[in-house]
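quick one, 369 residues, struct below
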Amino acid sequence: MTDTSPVRVGLVGVGGICARVHYPGLKRIPGVALVGLCDPDPQLLAQRSHDWQIPATYDRIDALLRTTAPDAVVVATPNAAHREAVLGSLESGCHVLCEKPIGMDAAEAIDLWRVARQAGRRHMTAFTYRFIPAMRFLRHLVHTGALGQIRHARFQRLQDWGENAIGWRQYRSLAGYGELGDMGIHRIDLAESLLGPAVAVCGAQRQVVERDRDGDGRPCPRQDVEDWVAWLAEYPGGVTAVFEMGKLTKGRSPDSGHDVAEVNGSEASAVYELHHPHQVLFARRGEPYRPLAVPEALLKAPGSPRDPGEGDPVWTCRYDQAWEFVSAVRAGRECEPSFAAGARAQQVADAIMAACGERRWVDVPGLEA
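---
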């Protein structure tokens, strides 16, 4: 029998990712009540309150926590605000789902993971790409040995965000990293879920444009983070991988961007493509790649109320993230991925940035409790 015990959730940060992933995912789960919204933007807050029919609104998280007393909180603020929101929620006894990256650097992320563990609350990092059916299938192929011994992998996420300002993501003080923390950290996590913990990295990064004008051509503070980054990584057993992320690839809009992960083994190779979320490409030696449909059992998370045929599956499949979070809260088990995965990804990201700055290979430390 499906557990529908009540879970009261507050949403902190109600911008684009909350509207596109967190809110619709939670709304589909029986027994979940969205009890309050928090955001510093009064116009956005009023619009979400009207559209979502959630009257309790707050411009500060402490007021949300004190007044609505939620069981759980989803944090989808700019990165610099994650720490305060996560710590406040944990201190109030809430379970927490936090957008990536969970901290501004590895030290902050590790601290949040340790505090969450000590609090005995469920904690989850929003690595939403883990829930794409094709990625779920690729992971299954790797872990069941269908590809043989894994030898090499490659990951690319290329988009064209234009050359004007893109908001808080272009400032180090608010984002921590640029493209590495935005799109790259997802692929760091995917690679570790497929290949194991990264051992060492080397890389290069570049800030290509200044982004000192907004969409209307008005001056704004210049960007000070990278908008292109690439790196090599070594994994256990001598497995290697190559990565490239960029925001300035003409012909690839944010919605139709190039997102590929290819894993090569001794027996076969397989390719995940975001925009074909219900299939992978598969080939054995001497064969061309051919589409292989994701098995029905892997089209959604076990027990998820989501219909795999609903809407644009590139986005609707990510509703399973909310299902995983609520299911873990109800069962009293670890979320997957937890803050440990978030902290681990930022360890790797810190190593990549050090490697880029020092122009050398950098060892990645282990994650210690």
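The mean pLDDT is 96.
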